[in-house]
Write a structure and sequence with these properties.
By secondary structure, the protein is mainly α. The protein is built from six helices and no strands.
């Protein structure tokens, strides 16, 4: 299978340095996970956190290539990591903004009230 073009769409959604890291890792795991480019593109399209994308594919790389463990379904394996890491990284970024005063806590409270009202 031909490798994805380094100027691919997902690389435009990620910071340059992180996109390069994703490209390098994808090239390494592509023989074992041929649809890795599609997987990365899908999460980039869903605004997946770039560090979570990297953690997911590096997690697969570690277990499969470095530890030699055969993962039957690399898509599901990476997705499970992504589902955990994505929320963690987004929460960390959000809390950093709150702590830096870039997000007004009053806005957060009104968003929570709107969310609760929307669920009722």
């Amino acid at each position: 299978m031909k490798s994805q073009n380094p100027n691919s769409h997902f690389s435009k959604k990620l910071p340059t340095q992180l996109a390069q890291k994703v490209i390098e890792c994808c090239r390494e795991i592509e023989p074992k996970f041929p649809k890795v480019w599609v997987w990365v593109q899908g999460w980039a399209n869903k605004n997946g956190h770039p560090l979570a994308i990297i953690a997911s594919i590096e997690g697969y790389k570690k277990i499969c290539l470095l530890d030699g463990v055969c993962v039957r379904n690399p898509w599901a394996y990476c997705t499970k990591i992504m589902q955990t890491k994505n929320g963690n990284f987004h929460e960390r970024d959000y809390m950093k903004k709150v702590n830096e005063g870039r997000i007004d806590i009053k806005d957060v409270n009104s968003q929570i009230v709107d969310l609760i009202n929307g669920m009722m």
